[in-house]
UniProtKB/TrEMBL annotation:
Stored SUPFAM superfamilies: Acyl-CoA N-acyltransferases (Nat)
Domain of life: Bacteria
The organism of origin for this protein: Roseivivax sediminis
Pfam families attached to this UniProt entry: Acetyltransf_CG
Listed name of the protein: N-acetyltransferase domain-containing protein
Signal sequence bounds: none
Matching PANTHER family: BSR4717 PROTEIN, PROTEIN NATD1
Residue ranges annotated for the N-acetyltransferase domain, each copy included: 9-98
Amino acid sequence: MTDMTISYTDTDTKGWYAARRPNISGEGELTFSKVSPKLIIADHTAVPESMRGMGVARALAERLIADARAKGQRIVPLCPFVRAHAEKHREELADVIQW
């Protein structure tokens, strides 16, 4: 979705992505915990009712995966949404998902 903006924020131990769309209230979010410089845990994905069905959760998961891949990190998919997405794309995500 080209009109979606995803921002990234992090601290020493946590990180999160927030997705926003113009003229739509609320924001989707995906949070993760940093276990080590090379291992993160996808904790939680939430999308408000106002953004449901717009591909927001998938866009957040794909951004997390792309960023982790670029940084040489592995993701433990604790979050049910990220886990389901990873299971659907198991082969292509084998390099980045830690089962």
